[in-house]
Task: inverse folding
């Protein structure tokens, strides 16, 4: 892959994160399916609903929410494809690092993107177990890819180590959220749902912001070639 294709691929990866953020935000304004503890709520409950609630084909109110589900799913698909393309392209920026770890990180990044796409195609009100499988696939794979990139960037001459530290932070954030999912308060209780859904947004938005910074760093590195 030549430098122009690498830059375009990384740029698409950056754009896909911004598009997901835009699509999910717009969906919040138009979502009218209520929440688990207040089905008649006429708007999205930011601190009491998961992002996956935006992908429901039927709201808690019982009303169909196909339009918002489709729009949110499209944002996820774009971000998932952008994640795959980003990791494939980024692999060419760390060619002097450990080959085995590089392939492992690349594979984990691709699997993370496929996980996001899988979430889009499995609304949790229809296929909750499959949906949860893709949620864990996406998060755990991205965590693994980020942790490996922390090591790989430190091995790559000329790659600012600060970006490796940011990938490490991404991995720690995702790992913390996975622990919250597994051992945190029960989301079937009102307070637990607030903690879980708010924790999810903190991690997802932090991860998005950090990956944007890392993407800009990768673009700068491309321009030096």
Result:
């Amino acid at each position: 892959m030549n430098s122009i294709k690498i830059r375009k691929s990384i740029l698409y990866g950056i754009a896909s994160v911004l598009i997901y953020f835009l699509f999910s935000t717009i969906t919040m304004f138009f979502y009218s399916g209520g929440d688990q503890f207040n089905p008649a709520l006429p708007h999205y409950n930011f601190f009491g609903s998961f992002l996956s609630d935006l992908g429901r084909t039927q709201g808690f109110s019982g009303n169909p929410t196909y339009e918002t589900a489709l729009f949110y799913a499209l944002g996820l698909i774009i971000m998932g494809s952008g994640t795959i393309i980003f990791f494939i392209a980024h692999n060419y920026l760390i060619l002097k690092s450990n080959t085995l770890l590089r392939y492992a990180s690349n594979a984990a990044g691709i699997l993370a993107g496929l996980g996001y796409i899988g979430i889009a195609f499995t609304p949790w009100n229809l296929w909750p177990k499959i949906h949860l499988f893709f949620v864990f696939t996406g998060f755990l794979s991205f965590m693994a890819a980020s942790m490996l990139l922390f090591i790989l960037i430190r091995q790559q001459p000329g790659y600012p180590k600060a970006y490796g530290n940011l990938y490490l932070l991404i991995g720690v954030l995702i790992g913390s959220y996975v622990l919250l999912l597994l051992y945190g308060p029960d989301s079937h209780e009102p307070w637990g749902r607030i903690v879980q859904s708010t924790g999810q947004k903190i991690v997802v938005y932090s991860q998005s912001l950090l990956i944007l910074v890392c993407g800009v760093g990768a673009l700068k590195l491309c321009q030096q070639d």
